[in-house]
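Quick one:
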Amino acid sequence: MSNEKKGAAGAETTAQAKAKAIEEAAANLMKQASGAAASSLEGLAAAADQAAAPAKKTAQQAVKEAKAAAKPAVDAADDLLDFDDDDPLSATSVSKKSLVIFFLIDTSRSMVGKKIGELNTVMEELIPEIRRVGEADTDVKVAVLTFGTQVRWMYNEPILIEDFEWTRLRADGVTNMGEAFRELSSRMSRNSFLNSPSLSFAPVIFLMTDGYPSDDYKEALEELKQNSWYKFGLKAALGIGSEANDEMLEEFTGSKDTVVHAYSGGQLAQMIKIIAVTSAQIGSKSMTLSDDVNHELSEEEVRSAKQKLLGQQIQDSMTNLGDADAISLDTGW
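Output:
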């Protein structure tokens, strides 16, 4: 090989070696650049997270404060769906409702003997009949308040009719009806006897007495009339015997049509059943809030319509009872 060829070959080899070295150097640079870029991106991400942390914390705090600020509005919305003490008839559309039947029973000394005996017997017979009144969407409960010298509840709270058992009453003492009215008013509240988690129908209130109150009942009755549950409730009264005062009973119910008298044991039994069952049937039914010409009825008009219907049905039942059973009003106790 000539010197010229050898020189050319050596130059080529040298050029190849340099090219390879350059290529390797370039690859190393690319590798280093890639690593540096990756490190830089990780650093940037970390820096971004660090920078965003205060904003994230602020946003979380803002959400927390917004929820706290909204709570009163949410509670207010919930209250609209509840049945409060000031607006009993606001309970209109719920899957299951509660109806409490209050029996106010005179157990003073004048009830001793056949009167209290007949009353105990009919109340034991009445409970199964009331059990058939409540529909699947209504929980019917019973509360019994007795008044003589002392005022007592038969149970410490209203009892579901399915679980209720009558405790036979004894008669003694004077007729403290005013005290009974005050006790009834204090218990007819969402904080006491009407605290059902479901919405409620206005209660049924059934007074039974054979005489005139021993205490000053008028002031207590006026206080009771300020109770919204009493105001919107269905009220009826039964005078037992000839000594019961119609004027006083009408003061209680607000209508003479919902006041009746029983002069014998047979009348007492049938009248208690008629009034209690009829009241429960009307009380546990929702009434339309508009009339025939689509005029929207007020809550007072609904209450008045139910009370009027109760009076009509009681009077109709009394007339039919008298004709069918021919019960002598002269029959004594």
